[in-house]
From TrEMBL:
Enzyme class: lyase
SUPFAM superfamilies in the cross-refs: Radical SAM enzymes
Keyword Transcription found: no
Protein name per its UniProtKB record: GTP 3',8-cyclase
Binding site for [4Fe-4S] cluster 2: 285, 288, 302
Cofactor(s) for this UniProt protein: [4Fe-4S] cluster
Gene symbol of the encoding locus: moaA
Residues annotated to bind GTP: 45, 95, 126, 187, 290-292
Cofactor binding: number and manner: Binds 2 [4Fe-4S] clusters. Binds 1 [4Fe-4S] cluster coordinated with 3 cysteines and an exchangeable S-adenosyl-L-methionine and 1 [4Fe-4S] cluster coordinated with 3 cysteines and the GTP-derived substrate.
Keywords of the record: 4Fe-4S, GTP-binding, Iron, Iron-sulfur, Lyase, Metal-binding, Molybdenum cofactor biosynthesis, Nucleotide-binding, S-adenosyl-L-methionine
Binding site for S-adenosyl-L-methionine: 58, 99, 150, 221
Domain Radical SAM core: start-end pairs: 36-250
Amino acid sequence: MTTTPAIVCNQTAEKILQEGQAELTSPAETKTLRDPYGRVHDYIRISITDRCNLRCVYCMPEEGLPFFPTDKVLSGDEIIQMVENFARMGISKIRLTGGEPLLRRDILEIAQGIANVPGITDLSVTTNGLALSRLAKPLWEAGVKRLNISLDTFDAARYKTITRGGKLAKVLKGLEVASTLPFEQIKINTVVIRGQNEDELTAFLRYTFDHPVNVRFIEFMPIGTERKQWESQYYGIEGVFEICRQNGWDYAPIDYAGNGPSENYQIRGARGSFGLIHPVSCQFCEGCNRLRVTADGCLKSCLFWDDEDSIRESIGDFEAFSKKVHQVLAVKPKNHEMALARQEEVKDKKPTWRHMSQIGG
Ligand code: SAM
Ligand code: SF4
């Protein structure tokens, strides 16, 4: 088994993208959605609510955010019809996120409706896990194939601090229940925050020894947070390899099916695996295959930038819908430049005004 000496970007921005070479596909021509850089888009992340029962320090302000009134949020029927439209355009993978998606009373109807859309082959959910002990089974029965559960610490007091009030035991229970079900994948999303949980990387790696999950270490992204907070709490996750070496753990890259930008590895003998998502220290835009829909029905081509357009009004009119989607895709930026991260260094574009809970991550 070979060990990897240092973090290796699987995305070197210039390698594949040949700027200007790829033609933007027009709605009538093909079922494949491509952006101006030739990237095929087959994946939509839908934030089905901006509401949440937690206030994670990297995601929401302590006092919360003014939530959209109910009539501003896409209804279940609109979401399903929107997915039908997307499926006609070549989208096959859907992730439901939020806010906290399991807070929606109609989450099971939405999941089942999407799972039944012809052409949708992969339905997944990202959740804080608080309601999973009750909902994991019905979600699986509704057609959800993969789960991402957010968990940044194994320490109850720390969990309470990071999430501003959450109960760790509830998430662990949810994780336990989900693990008894035949989900194709369970991933744990761990945002690494300097001064809060970087000392638990070892514990999370150890967790993969006995648990068939994929722990994904995620860098704190400068979205919706104060610059000062982000600068002081950002932690580059490449230290994970050093931890493996110090512990004498042999690890190797693995292929781990998924739609995300993570690079995946497995420690020899472990049942689970780990992944790195490092949008800040290492650009991951080269293979971007996704669009995002916000809870209020706006389509975003990039997580980071301000550009977005409402598609809600056109959901009932496929031609108009398709045109809107292509318009949004046509201005998709080549990359997010999160490392520059700041308005004053990027002259021609503005970072999004939205908080992560309003986009879905
Ligand atoms: N509430 C659900 C949850 O927490 O899993 C879904 C929505 S949440 C916005 C989706 C993912 O974004 C979570 O895994 C969360 O940890 C991550 N996230 C939120 N803010 C972030 C930030 N500033 N940087 C990196 N990841 C962030
Ligand atoms: Fe809520 Fe998820 Fe944001 Fe935490 S990360 S505040 S659980 S939306």
